[in-house]
Specification:
By secondary structure, this protein is α/β, with parallel strands linked by helices. The protein is built from 6 helices and 13 strands. Helix content is 23%, strand content 26%. Bound molecules: zinc ion (ZN).
Length: 222
């Protein structure tokens, strides 16, 4: 499925619906509006077209449109739209930025999920909205798994084994594998995983687990 495209400032996947990215820490804390706007403008993107979620580690996915531009949507961890004039963004620093889109980019979603959101069914909720609100079948959806804390570094308690029906190796949880399996079970087979770990790649990413940082990377789908 091709290779992820890694530059100093952003990571993206050539094959995934064209316009998307995850920032690296090189461009700084994307929660900071001044830095965020500066970064987007540097790519000729209009910051006022961005819609963000206030992210509470739950399972709500909300349908948004142009009226929501330049705002944070309350009480959700996922955004979905068919509005061409919008960009959807989410912040992460260890959690998974999961972007979804149909092939021509006309319906797109940005989802923030750690183990809790996955466990609570945020992926199923997103796929259901693609189907119910936009009549899109799972097999027409492509998914992008951005940088997050991977099985090399993600120590968890053994109760995760029951939660996700997995066997931990050295107490490490493989979130990407759980997401991949869930997506495939739902009928999504085109999955682009950048395979980067936020925890041990210190020069590239912020990691909450590494130092309880307040900084966040931004993932955007346009
Ligand atoms: Zn790692």
């Amino acid at each position: 499925m091709g290779n992820p495209h890694i530059m100093k400032q952003i990571i993206s996947y050539k094959n995934f619906p064209y316009k998307h990215l995850t920032t690296t820490k090189i461009v700084g804390n994307m929660r900071d509006k001044v830095l965020r706007d500066k970064f987007l403008l540097s790519l000729n993107l209009d910051p006022s077209n961005l819609i963000l979620a206030n992210q509470m580690h739950r399972n709500n996915v909300k349908v948004v449109n142009s009226f929501n531009k330049n705002t944070f949507i309350a009480k959700c961890d996922g955004l979905i739209t068919a509005d061409k004039n919008t960009m959807l963004g989410i912040f992460t620093a260890d959690c998974i930025p999961l972007l979804m889109s149909i092939g021509n980019g006309e319906v797109k979603a940005a989802i923030h999920t750690g183990w809790k959101g996955i466990y609570l069914g945020i992926i199923e909720n997103a796929v259901e909205i693609f189907h119910k609100d936009f009549s899109i079948k799972p097999e027409d959806i492509k998914a992008y798994i951005g940088p997050h804390i991977r099985s090399c570094c993600y120590d968890v308690n053994c109760d995760m084994e029951d939660k996700f029906n997995v066997e931990l190796v050295n107490n490490k949880l493989d979130l990407a594998e759980i997401v991949r399996r869930k997506l495939q079970k739902l009928g999504i087979n085109e999955i682009f995983d950048v395979k980067r770990c936020t925890f041990h790649e210190k020069d590239l990413f912020f990691s909450y687990r590494r130092n309880q940082c307040a900084e966040r990377m931004l993932s955007v789908i346009m």
